[in-house]
Amino acid sequence: MHALRVTVDAAREDEATAALWEAGTQGVEVKPALERRVELIAYFGDDPDVAGLARALPGAEIAPAPVPDVDWVARFREGFRPFRVGRFEVVPRWEAHGPDPERLIVDPGRAFGTGTHETTKLCLEALARLAERRPLGRTLDLGAGTALLAVAARRLGAGLVVASDIDPEATSASRHHAALNGEPLHVVRADGGRGLRSRSFDLVLANLMALLLIDRAAEVQDLVAPGGALVLSGLLLDDVPPVREAFAASGTPREHRLGEWAALVFEPAGTAR
């Protein structure tokens, strides 16, 4: 494994994170640095393209970083405990004992999201609120990762649920979590909304980076059926205005916050409360 230390202004954290994922990183740590800067420690399975990153991030400081000899999965498991998000209890696989409709089982060793991040919690809470006032119907979890949100949608009464991701390891993780939770998900490998039928989902969940949401705004909105709902998460508070603007065609969203993160919920007029 290889690692790079990328130091940028704090305002460019999202830009740098997106560039690192595009370059093939397997994970990114974010650490505060001096004078409103952040350090991103990015891990790669192969030699990273440092020259390409330098072109993508002009002005960034990029240098090799040591790779600690740590069993990260074992360390994560040591500290992972069940916790509640809204009506759900999120439980690691080794502590799950039998099926429970209010339990979401996760396998932290599979990465791609375990429910612990604020953005996933915001989505789970938004899902529960939506289910209280409208049928979820045909649901798409876009950029599904572990498909934890797709599983939750099924538990909240959604009919057909599609978990879509471009990463083959993520689609493998989605299938694994569908089986762990005993939920019949339709797992597909697709690049965003490309390859999915226009206006065919009553609910679209997109827990993605703000830059990607803005870039794909028209594509994401086109997936929502007339009268459908749209939940966008993965947003830092500073990301909210540009994402609102990019999705203005979907109307005025309700904003939910948790710490420095936010989610936007778009619903047809007359259903939000």
Class based on secondary structure composition and strand pairing: alpha/beta
Largest sheet, spatial ordering of strands? 10-9-8-11-12-14-13
Tell me about the largest β-sheet. 7 strands, mixed
Note the gap between the termini: 49 Å
Description:
This protein is an alpha/beta fold. It folds into 2 domains: 63 residues, ACT domain (Alpha-Beta Plaits), CATH 3.30.70.260; 191 residues, Rossmann fold (3-Layer(aba) Sandwich), CATH 3.40.50. The protein is built from 9 helices and 14 strands. The strands form 3 sheets. The protein has a 7-stranded mixed beta sheet, with helices on both faces. The chain has a 4-stranded antiparallel beta sheet with strand order 2-3-1-4, with helices on one face. A 3-stranded mixed beta sheet has the order 5-6-7. β2 and β3 form a beta hairpin. The longest helix is centred in the middle third of the chain and has 16 residues. The model has no long low-confidence stretch (mean pLDDT 88).
Topology summary:
Layout: E1 2-9, H1 13-22, E2 27-32, E3 37-44, H2 50-56, E4 61-64, H3 72-79, E5 83-85, E6 88-92, E7 103-106, H4 118-133, E8 139-142, H5 148-155, E9 161-165, H6 168-181, E10 186-189, E11 201-207, H7 210-215, H8 217-221, E12 224-236, H9 240-246, E13 254-258, E14 261-266
List keywords for this structure.
273 residues, 2 domains, Rossmann fold, Alpha-Beta Plaits, alpha/beta, 30% helix, 4-stranded antiparallel β-sheet
In short:
The chain has helices at residues 13-22, 50-56, 72-79, 118-133, 148-155, 168-181, 210-215, 217-221, 240-246, and strands spanning 2-9, 27-32, 37-44, 61-64, 83-85, 88-92, 103-106, 139-142, 161-165, 186-189, 201-207, 224-236, 254-258, 261-266. By secondary structure, the protein is α/β, with parallel strands linked by helices.
